[in-house]
Amino acid sequence: MTRNNSQTNAARDILENAAGGILHIDLDALASNWRTLREHAGGAETAAVVKANAYGTGIEKAVPALARAGCRTFFVAHLSEAIRARAVAPYAAIYVLNGLFAGTGPTYAEFDLRPVLGSFEEVEEWAGFCRAQNRKLKAAIHVDTGMNRLGLTVPQGLTLKDRGELKDFEIALLMSHFVSAEESDNPLNAQQIEAFEAVRSTLPGIPASLPNSSGIFLRDKPGYDLVRPGYALYGGNPTPDRNNPMKPVVGLNARIVQLRWVEADQTVGYNGRWVALDKRRIATLSVGYADGYPRAASARGRSGDELLAGMALVAGHTCSFAGNVSMDLITIDVTDVPESQVKRGDTVTLIGGDLTIDEVGRRAGTIGYEILTNLGARYARAYRGGEA
Length: 388
What we know:
By secondary structure, this protein is α/β, with parallel strands linked by helices. The chain folds into two domains: about 200 residues, TIM Barrel (Alpha-Beta Barrel); about 140 residues, Lyase, Ornithine Decarboxylase, Chain A, domain 1. The protein contains eleven helices and 20 strands.
């Protein structure tokens, strides 16, 4: 039986009404952010990094929205993510950042995917697979210019031109990755550019890529052929020392399941780490660390003098967390919200408005990347825009 639109909308409404948290994802803002980044890319092709389920927004929704905006190249971390992206972007170039796992060549070939090769062992295996197939398949070469995670060392990169295996496949992209591009004055940026230039000069004619989200905004950014934004696409600030040029993409609302008064000197939550200084009204939200909201955002101390902790927006009022974030619940202090403006069943904002993903990360002692990529599967997801 095929559902009509009214049935689909009714089912969606039921799910949203039953969910403890509702994740709002603005696909039009995502596409707009991609276009903004393209404008700053200096003529380079603008790809999109859609790893970690498109930073929590959903590969199956985000990739088509970006493709409709004009994106033709995508990067993921894992082969499984690449297969999902291929299903919704049949003509795109799709690179797998975490390298070539042994024996996975047939899967790359079947789905027309491109491994990012970061060691001579991977280069040798990919070349051998291509020889056996009698096909010059495409791959990227990753040169490590300072991260010390994946990639050929710079000395290894300088010898690439002498490797016989290069005749067996097509190097579609030579790439590296900035360590601290969000720190515009960090001298490591210039050192990495210099090292990458040295390797690039030995492989003329091969498209090159270095800038990530923040790298696109560096004053002395290299041009190259392709940029690879990730975090900024989803609303994160690529220029922490300046105003955020990106539109917010993600918002999170949580539902109030109960309200109660606690008396002075009573504690709230596990371990009694938060103490009411006087009579306080507490709202309990149906979201917790099992939904990806970090426990590190817990509030400890006495009401009114908590250390840096999570916040929620309730009927236009900023309310502090009260006590520990638990697995399925968060408690917040809503004493300053008029009783008529907050009741059981209302939703409050955990991400949105002044509570940007960067601010939420700061209050949890982490970064917005972690907030985005931990967004839980239990949320109802409400998508906006993105249509062709």
